[in-house]
Design goal:
Blueprint (H helix, E strand, L loop, with lengths): L4 E6 L11 E6 L4 E4 L3 H4 L9 E8 L2 E9 L3 E10 L6 E10 L5 E12 L2 E9 L5 E9 L3 E6 L6 E4 L3 E5 L6 E6 L4 E6 L4 E7 L2 E6 L3 E6 L5 E6 L5 E6 L2 E6 L2 E6 L5 E6 L4 E7 L2 E6 L7 E6 H4 L11
Antiparallel strand pairs: 1-2, 2-3, 4-5, 5-6, 6-7, 7-8, 8-9, 9-10, 10-11, 12-13, 13-14, 14-15, 16-17, 17-18, 18-19, 20-21, 21-22, 22-23, 24-25, 25-26
């Protein structure tokens, strides 16, 4: 979600219900839905080991998504972009690796797609014959990919607010790198617990840890502000307007970053798979088995109590 728009993917049907895989953009203010993908994304679910549309991002007037296709001995990533107001996908980049999809794959990968406020970024990396990562680049997504920063510490982008990019680094350092949209490393933040997800918005950097805690940092200084306990199984973290939203089982939670107190909660009809929070409101997706999935939008005036106001920036 970015602003008043939500991007989502609908998988291809099977048998008598066969249809194209398609990416849509829903303008929640106008309640208008636009199909933005085209012929190539139609076949995203048509390979034996591919993941289909694996990642989605929105940035102002642009949508972007990664399609993964694969067989027994190869796997390919395709990065597409389109306007949010019409169907017109174009391929920006692709990557291929070969070997054994159940073992080692050697070659190139694309992932870590993030977007906000007109800015899109992604990671591009390569693995050697042993499966070890030997090249990583954080890149801007335009009509083509443009280099921002290079090195293993730039993997893997998880969040951006259009001003900074948050990279959640893997072992052994387990740090969070904050980069400018020009690729300059601004600071590194070491989380107290083992971070599994991070979300960035203006003055706040939030980290979800394996201990079901939420660590709240000042994104400009890297200073730890607060640590809050969350519901077990927390995932799909997002932050906006001094609030943090996340999913736990079939529930969606919204808490204040300043106090850790709940301001909104809802039980969905099935396990929640994704949560997004913007100044306009909250969106979450859920589904069960072969039943149609659902996306729900809750305006911010319903998320916050009538007497509440968003927390001031840190």
């Amino acid at each position: 979600m970015d602003g008043s728009r939500v991007a989502y993917d609908v998988a291809a049907g099977h048998g008598a219900k066969r249809r194209c895989n398609a990416v849509f953009v829903w303008n929640v203010v106008r309640n208008a839905v636009t199909k933005v993908s085209g012929r190539e994304t139609c076949d995203a679910d048509g390979t034996s080991t591919g993941a289909g549309v694996r990642e989605l991002a929105l940035a102002g007037g642009r949508a972007a998504w990664i399609v993964n296709k694969g067989g027994n001995s190869e796997s390919d990533d395709y990065l597409y972009s389109s306007s949010v107001t019409r169907s017109g996908e174009r391929i920006v980049a692709s990557a291929r690796r070969t070997g054994n999809v159940d073992g080692v794959l050697t070659g190139n990968w694309i992932g870590g797609l993030v977007g906000s406020a007109g800015f899109l970024a992604v990671d591009h990396w390569a693995t050697d014959a042993a499966g070890a990562v030997d090249m990583v680049q954080l890149q801007r997504v335009g009509t083509r990919l443009g280099d921002l920063a290079e090195g293993p510490e730039t993997m893997l982008a998880q969040s951006t607010d259009g001003r900074q990019v948050a990279v959640l680094r893997g072992e052994p350092d387990s740090t969070i790198g904050l980069y400018s949209t020009r690729g300059v490393l601004l600071r590194s933040v070491t989380s107290r617990g083992k971070a599994t997800e991070v979300a960035l918005r203006r003055d706040y950097l939030a980290a979800l840890t394996t201990g079901n805690t939420l660590e709240v940092y000042n994104s400009h200084s890297g200073r730890l502000l607060r640590t809050w306990r969350l519901a077990p199984g927390a995932h799909s973290l997002d932050v906006s307007s001094g609030l943090a939203a996340y999913a736990s089982g079939a529930r969606v939670h919204v808490v204040r970053l300043s106090t850790g107190k709940s301001v909104f909660g809802v039980r969905a009809g099935a396990t929640v798979s994704a949560v997004q929070l913007e100044p306009t409101g909250l969106a979450y997706a859920f589904g069960r088995g072969d039943r149609p999935g659902k996306i729900v939008y809750v305006p911010m005036k319903r998320v916050l109590p009538k007497t509440a106001t968003p927390a001031k920036p840190a």
